[in-house]
Amino acid sequence: MSKIDDLVDAEMSNVVSDLQALIRQPSVSARKQRLVECANLVAKIMEVAGIENEILYQHQLDNKKEQREGEVDDAPPIVYGEYKSKSNPNGRTILFYNHYDVQPEDPLDLWEGKDAFSGKVEGNYIFGRGSADDKGELITRIKAVEYYLKKTGDVPCNVKFVVEGEEEVGSPHLKDYLINYQTKFRCDGVIWESGFIDAKGIPIISLGQKGILCVELITKGPCRDVHSSLAVLIENPAWRLITALNTIRSVTGEILIKDWYKEVRAFTDEELAVLENEPFNEDELKKVYGVQKFLNNAKGIAVKIAFAGSPTCNISSLISGYSGEGSKTVLPATARAKLDFRLVPEMDPERQMHRLTKHLREHGYNTEQEIEVKFLSGEGAARVPISIPFLKPVKEAALEIYGDFIISVSSAGTGPMYYFQKILGAPCVCIGGSELSNKSHSPNESMRLDLLNKTIKCMAKILEKTNTY
Amino acid sequence: MSKIDDLVDAEMSNVVSDLQALIRQPSVSARKQRLVECANLVAKIMEVAGIENEILYQHQLDNKKEQREGEVDDAPPIVYGEYKSKSNPNGRTILFYNHYDVQPEDPLDLWEGKDAFSGKVEGNYIFGRGSADDKGELITRIKAVEYYLKKTGDVPCNVKFVVEGEEEVGSPHLKDYLINYQTKFRCDGVIWESGFIDAKGIPIISLGQKGILCVELITKGPCRDVHSSLAVLIENPAWRLITALNTIRSVTGEILIKDWYKEVRAFTDEELAVLENEPFNEDELKKVYGVQKFLNNAKGIAVKIAFAGSPTCNISSLISGYSGEGSKTVLPATARAKLDFRLVPEMDPERQMHRLTKHLREHGYNTEQEIEVKFLSGEGAARVPISIPFLKPVKEAALEIYGDFIISVSSAGTGPMYYFQKILGAPCVCIGGSELSNKSHSPNESMRLDLLNKTIKCMAKILEKTNTY
Q1: Class of A211-264+311-379 per CATH?
Q2: Is the whole model's pTM more than 0.95, yes or no?
Q3: Which of B33, B218, B232, B291 to mutate to test the interface with A (most CBs of A within 10 A)?
Q4: What is the CATH number of domain B5-209+381-468?
Q5: Residue A252: helix, strand or coil by DSSP?
């Protein structure tokens, strides 16, 4: 038990109403929608919690100060929060990294009658885009500090918050902020924006994230959509896109670009041992996602190695030609595919981008005229060594609140952990209250109320333990 | 000169205003939009012209008469028009086949400030979806009859009109109408719904049309769009679609499905001689469509043979995943491609559909569960022999009005000519007033006013000549 458990239980309706207020701001970074408004709301919730707060705008960054007056920021602001422990001002500092932006809500028709931004509560669940990723996780951290202050007038260690608004589009400006505010953000360890609870209710403490390279391939055909009878004479850019894509990946998922895997290192024996012990409910995962088998019929340790350590090439979007009902016999002017390549440590997004472009050129695609290879975003991968001391308070907190924990070498997802490690030099640890079945990034995203409650208590416990290691 | 040339010149503002009224009905058959309204308008214009007219509904067809009361027709109606020549009631009958439906207007943002359904006139052009294909062509035929009646109180031969509302979606119900009304529609020759004028102002008299098979391929992945980090374990249906498509067509455009070309016969020597003489401005075509070269760098007779006689496989639509701005890292639940295969005489759409499905199965795609092969529409190809007598009045009319003509073995496009030949046993000849630069099926579709004028005169001349051969 943490010191504030009874207060957390008493205040759950306040937790839910603040989370609802956050969900009701449709802060979709892909559309740059209501981001400043959502940042203001986060700052207001911190204010009420008693946390010193500040909104950091892009134009305040040192390298942006010469920006012309009236020019609008490209980047949404970061909400910074801080509380210096009165009892332990020279002790350790924990930084909570979160984000207030969300994924787009479409396809809207699959939200089962629930508004994507309603924050509706049904039984033990709160629904809505961001209810888990990441507004649900964010609220647990703010509330842990709020109730600590309310109960004791202090927090057991120094606390900082960095809450950004571009995580779902690859955090393109976070690096600038981290470099600019290196001193302000200094800390001994970062609690990452999210973490999973497995089907048995045990938290997974994850120590790494894959990187990502997002690109768009755009093939160009005739100067406009033309009548498809001309397909006999005019090359269709959709066919060029398909043959180009087909050179990139084998049917077994292997990426066929030269040197793609050059920097990939195998897991160490220590990592493999942790992987071996990591529970992984294959059947549950298949059931949740409605698939009969995994890619290449993978099973056992192969699944775990792939999940934690294999690069991927995913198609997230294909668009060409007529998108309406029925037939329209056109030969499209363009065809577009968006790809996201997950990367593992030492794979550099820019270098991989260069290799992709070179690959297409060498396969006969003119990357100047015929096919545009557009860089959308890139982030490096990160893995924290299993031996870091900062893991101790997190493990102890998890054990006290949940009775058990699982260590995971790396999550399969991506975030800007790489920048925190490189720029702040701080170890990052993922722990949170999300479940696989929360449908993050999908329709009907939800969060369990009892896990919101437990996660606040766990965060409080981490604060209590941080100065003990 | 035809007998009504001066009247046509005097009445051009009436021609334009009736065409504008037609364009202003957005009768998009792919969306089943305002089709009955447009049919009523066509009937009204015929009525004013003095042409007996009737709207034929699907539920009136013999095989539909047991349809329950209140049930809505799947098919839009056909507008039937007739005028029996008083001076020549037992002479020949010409049937004008046209359609009042249009292609969808998107992409809307490429309409250069012009509403797709405005019918705006600028200089020598009228703009709008359907201004050429096929409302512009339709109006020339109605007006030829109208002005003949106005000037002489009669027409020189019997005239019939069949104006359907589903040509742009493959005329799925026309066959039923033709079978049902075989007697009513009986005629000696059909003037087809459209025909082209070349860059030098010479009409192309075309004697054939390719067939078509439209299908949709739908691949299925997880039960909903999921986070793309799962691409390491879950097969992405967009990748399955791409590998499947890649088995269908070679980079040179050859269709790789077994027996696809089995029934295709080569052109006869007579057809080849006509093809040789057919002018074909390769540079002009490349300029209009903004391409540097043709598929496989084809030139000369190879271009003509391909255009008139080669089957194609075109992608008219690709859709998967996130279609908005920016990145959304999802692994899509489904991926969809719409294909249209152009067919040549003796290729049967149903048999080709069966070959496609078999091909996918033999290449390891489970067509029950993993990939759905959906039939959208199919039409056979048609070619009228070069020696038919009905060609004589058409050639003579073209010679008198335009000073020259070109005979084309077959157009590259598709229409339901096959049914007219098989069911009515009537030869079909294409002649009209459209230009390649009219941008039919594309944004900024237009029709030249001087060609509307000339085409009315040419139609009048055909009526004059029909009883002379």
Answers
A1: alpha beta
A2: no
A3: B232
A4: 3.40.630.10
A5: coil
